[in-house]
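User: My advisor, Dr. K., asked me to get a structural model of this assembly before our group meeting. I'm new to this, so sorry if the format is off. These are the inputs:
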Amino acid sequence: ELKVEQNPLFLSMQEGKNYTIYCNYSTTSDRLYWYRQDPGKSLESLFVLLSNGAVKQEGRLMASLDTKARLSTLHITAAVHDLSATYFCAVGDLGNEKLTFGTGTRLTIIP
Amino acid sequence: NAGVTQTPKFRILKIGQSMTLQCAQDMNHNYMYWYRQDPGMGLKLIYYSVGAGITDKGEVPNGYNVSRSTTEDFPLRLELAAPSQTSVYFCASRPWGWPYEQYFGPGTRLTVT
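Assistant: The format is fine. Below is the predicted structure of the whole assembly, which you can bring to the meeting.
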């Protein structure tokens, strides 16, 4: 059974600082997704990572994937208040249609 | 395109009542999914469908039923609502083919009291 763990679960950081969110998963997968969720809102797709060593960047966010370590990271550079949200990783179950979600990281950026 | 739409946005049910959560998509996606999100948690898969007439159970199907008579619609039925079904329900869809990215609806917030 595929298990996905994110850490930290809560992160409070000052504007301008850098930090990393980690997503570990338990079995081989061929795809990993990062989503953002604002309070009371739906999930917004951020990144799709499909191969070992994949790196994608959008603004102050950068995601990477290490399939051998079964680890993805979401790095935040010079955080700004607008990045406050909950971030989820989701891992595709190899050979079927399902995604397994992590429990999310609630990120709060403090001015 | 409207994308994935869900109705209602909010609903309060009494214990033992039944209701149907509606989900529709106008992107001609084959795959559709129902998730629930409990407070402070990630999403858990309830049911999914790979096309009209084909559905399968996810991780937490008990207390729910689905049907898929058309490509566009994927309603979720709650029979005999229980407080444990208080949650936010998200519907998602995706097209056939790689990279299997799912697109989410706005959600339905359900309270059972």
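One thing worth pointing out at the meeting: The interface with chain B takes residues 4, 31, 33, 41-43, 45, 48, 50, 88, 90, 92, 97-99, 101-104, 106 of chain A (CB under 8 Å).

User: Perfect, thanks a lot.
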